[in-house]
Each structure stands twice: as C-alpha cells, then as structure tokens.
Amino acid sequence: MCDPKTLIDQSKYPVLESGPARDTIVEHVRASLAEDGCAVLKGFITPDGVQTLLAQAEGVSDKGFKSTARTNVYFTKDDPSLPSDDPRRQFYDRSNYFIPADNFATGSPLRDLYTLPALSKFVQDCLQEENFFPYADPLADVIINAADAGNGFPWHFDTNNFTVTLAIQNAEHGGEFEYAPNIRKGSENFEEVTKVLSGTSDQIRTLVLEPGDLQLFRGRYSLHRVAPLAGTIPRYVAIFSYVEEPDMVATPERCKQLYGRCLPVHYERAGQRADTFLD
Questions:
Q1: Given this model, what pLDDT does residue 126 score?
Q2: Cys-Cys with 176: which of 23, 196, 199, 227 at CB 3.0–4.6 Å?
Q3: Which range among 106-115, 151-160, 170-179, 228-237 shows the weakest confidence by mean pLDDT?
Q4: Whether residue 24 is found in the same domain as residue 146
Q5: What is the pLDDT of residue 279?
Q6: d(Cα 142, Cα 242) in Å, to the nearest integer?
Q7: Angstrom distance (rounded) from CA 5 to CA 10
C-alpha cells in the first residue's frame, strides 16, 4: 500500500494544503476553464506515480468490458424528419472498453487517489461546483478507459457538467484530444457542428495529453473526440466521477451497456428485482 499523496508531484502542485501556492493554481485552472472549458495540469502525477498506476491498470486490463455502438454527437436516436445532412443524423462507430471500479479495491493506488479528500476538495474548488459528491456507484466511481488500435471516441458532447481524467499511458500512435471550445453555448449552433464533423472548422484545438496529466473538462458545450489509435500499445485513462447528489448510482440498463453487468444495488435503487434479469 502506498500513500496516495506521494503519487502527486507536490513540488509542482502543492494543492493538498491550503495556502497561496494552492490558491494560485486554483485561479489558473478556473481561468482556463472559463476561457475554453478545458484545463490541464501537466505532470500532476510523478513519473514513479505513473508507473505505479500503469502497473495497476495492466494488472486488471483483462477485466475490461468492450462494447460498440453507432451514435451521433448528442447520443440521441435518428430523426428521419430532419434533413439528411443535419448533424443529428450523422452517426459514427463508437467503441468503449471500460475497466469497472470494483477492480480497484480500497488500498489500491488509483482508488486511494480518488478518495483522497484533499484532492477531491481541490477539484471541487477548481470547478466551482457547489453540489459535488463522489459517485456512489460501485462499478463506476473510479474506472479506467482502455483503448487499442482502431479504437477512439468520435465527436460528441457530454451529458454531464464536467469530466475529470488522468492520463496513464498513451497509445503508440493517435489518441490526441481534439475539441471545439464552447460552440454550443448560447445555441445548438448546428452550422458549426457540421463544419467540425466535415473537417472544415477552424475552431478545433488539439491536445496531446501525456501520462501523469490531470484534465478537467466541461464537455457539455464543447464538441470533442479522441482521435483513432494505432500500434500495439493500449491507451489507459482513469476517470474520476463526481456527481451533484449523494448516493447516486447508475440504472441497470446503463451499467449493462457500459460494464456488461450489474450489482444488486443497481436493481434495488431502480425498484427492480435482480433475479428477473439475466446478466
């Protein structure tokens, strides 16, 4: 068991204790989020910390659940009443490979980092979210998104207010994070969305996230994607999930879609009997 505080490069990011240095970092992150909805803390995790997290990811990489689907950028169903070139009618292949949270037990590096109170408070202060709670879902509170050659995540808007991710390992090629900042703020802006999808937009920014980088991103209004991957090295990104209400868990349908299974708590919260479903 390691102290999760030692995973963070506290010489560069003294964010676990109050003080002027922490305040300066928080203000910098807030300014970045206000500008374009994205903030990256480069090298937030030390090189040794990255290796610790990578070893944990590789140790459970066979526990991931792979799923594929065709989705539009809004995760909505096709609407034949719309013109054929409307962005709501453009569908793309999407592949998920999530390693569920119950593979990261208490006492393991990734979970202890996620449950570190001072880190959660720092993230909350950066995001300026009044209602901010750890996700109570035992399959989804802290997970790893794994992807290999041919995978990626096509253009989309998030349905949640923000995401908190930690890069652990890059693929051999590809996997850049691309986003069009705030093109959805004020209106749906279908014209600019269409430009992004057709490759003609001048609004796209590209980030190469390196292992150890912590990213805070408001993707509800910024169209974004992970570019397709190539090579033999898988990409690992940890996702720390926080929600607006305490004790929240996903629906059984959502759990099965993302993780291939459910736990009794998912059925209980949904008012369903687990023995009436086949996992």
A1: 98
A2: 227
A3: 151-160
A4: yes
A5: 47
A6: 9
A7: 8
Assess whether 214 and 166 both reside in one domain: yes
Q: What is the mean pLDDT of the chain?
A: 94
Return the bridge partners of 178, or none: 206, 225
| pTM metric for this prediction | 0.93
pLDDT greater than 50 at residue 102: yes
E-strand stretches of the chain = 38-41, 65-71, 92-99, 133-134, 142-147, 153-156, 163-169, 173-174, 177-180, 205-207, 214-217, 223-226, 229-230, 235-240, 242-243
Burial 247-259 (b: 16+ CB within 10 A, else e): ebbbebeebbebb
Residues 204 and 278 in one domain: no
Which residues span the domain enclosing 210?
Answer: 4-248
CB 131 within 8 A of CB 32: no
Same domain, 36 and 113: yes
Question: What is the amino acid identity at position 137?
Answer: D
* Nearest-angstrom CA–CA distance, 138 and 142: 9
> How many domains does the chain divide into?
2
